[in-house]
Amino acid sequence: GQQLNQSPQSMFIQEGEDVSMNCTSSSIFNTWLWYKQEPGEGPVLLIALYKAGELTSNGRLTAQFGITRKDSFLNISASIPSDVGIYFCAGQLTDSNYQLIWGAGTKLIIKP
Amino acid sequence: GAVVSQHPSRVICKSGTSVKIECRSLDFQATTMFWYRQFPKQSLMLMATSNEGSKATYEQGVEKDKFLINHASLTLSTLTVTSAHPEDSSFYICSASGGRTDTQYFGPGTRLTVL
């Protein structure tokens, strides 16, 4: 099925470093969402973006909804060990019951 | 707010048996619930979408007679895997949405192992 282009696929960084990941699409979305999933658990919503150009922060996390509505990025500043996990972007359709189109995920690994 | 629970969190069953998984929205009314399946190292694959009181809409390739979905109330949806086989072993996750933004909130998932 349809999928967003999410990159990078994985990141192996030092604790304290900043992290940046992004998603692009050929389709326009009205909502972009960023989720984090840890092993054996469901995704947890981090940030929801509803307007093109919107820049939203949640603690050390910052995400932006691209002005073209076809892309979004997520930044994590000063990474800590508990940031490890898989981060997924998702674009939400406004028809089809607001289904989500998912990126393939970015796996974040942090060296202490 | 926006808490979704799933039960059981883990189930092991014999081939040929049926397994029911419950998904509940604890602090909001979910007009729509979604059921996903996730394979290792992959993103979530949507199986079906259900609106309260109506039949579920299944994604292409998902057998509706095998994966029975009931969304009887605004806080509960169930997925029943009928006549389970080892290839049905997977991580099943539900999500619920409701209200103005229709943002999906996810349950913690159910690990199904069919022997």
Structural class of chain B: mainly beta
Bin the strand percentage of chain A: over 45%
State the helical fraction of chain A: under 10%
Number of helices of chain B: 0
Radius of gyration of chain B (Å): 13 Å
Coarse structural class of chain A: mainly beta
Residue runs with pLDDT of under 50 for 5 or more positions of chain B: none
How would you classify the quaternary structure?
A: heterodimer
Biggest contact: A-B, 24 and 28 residues
The H/E string of chain A reads: EEEEEEEEEEE
Mean pLDDT of chain A: 92
**Rg of chain A, nearest Å:** 13 Å
Instruction: Name the helix and strand elements of chain B from N-terminus to C-terminus, one letter apiece.
Output: EEEEEEEEEEE
Report, as a whole number of angstroms, the end-to-end distance of chain A.
37 Å
Short description:
The complex is a heterodimer of chains A (112) and B (115). By secondary structure, chain A is mainly beta.
Descriptive report:
Chain A has 112 residues and is an all-beta fold. Helices cover 0% and strands 53% of the residues of chain A. Chain A is globular and about 45 Å long. Chain A starts with a strand and ends with a strand. Chain B has 115 residues and is mainly β. Chain B contains no helices and 11 strands. In chain B, a hairpin with a 7-residue loop joins strand 9 (90-97) and strand 10. Chain B starts with a strand and ends with a strand. The mean pLDDT of chain B is 92. The chains are: A mainly beta (112), B mainly beta (115). The A-B interface holds A 1, 3, 31, 33, 35, 40-45, 48, 50, 88, 92, 96-100, 102-105 and B 2, 4, 6, 32, 34, 42-46, 49, 51, 57, 59, 91, 93, 95, 97, 101-109, 111.
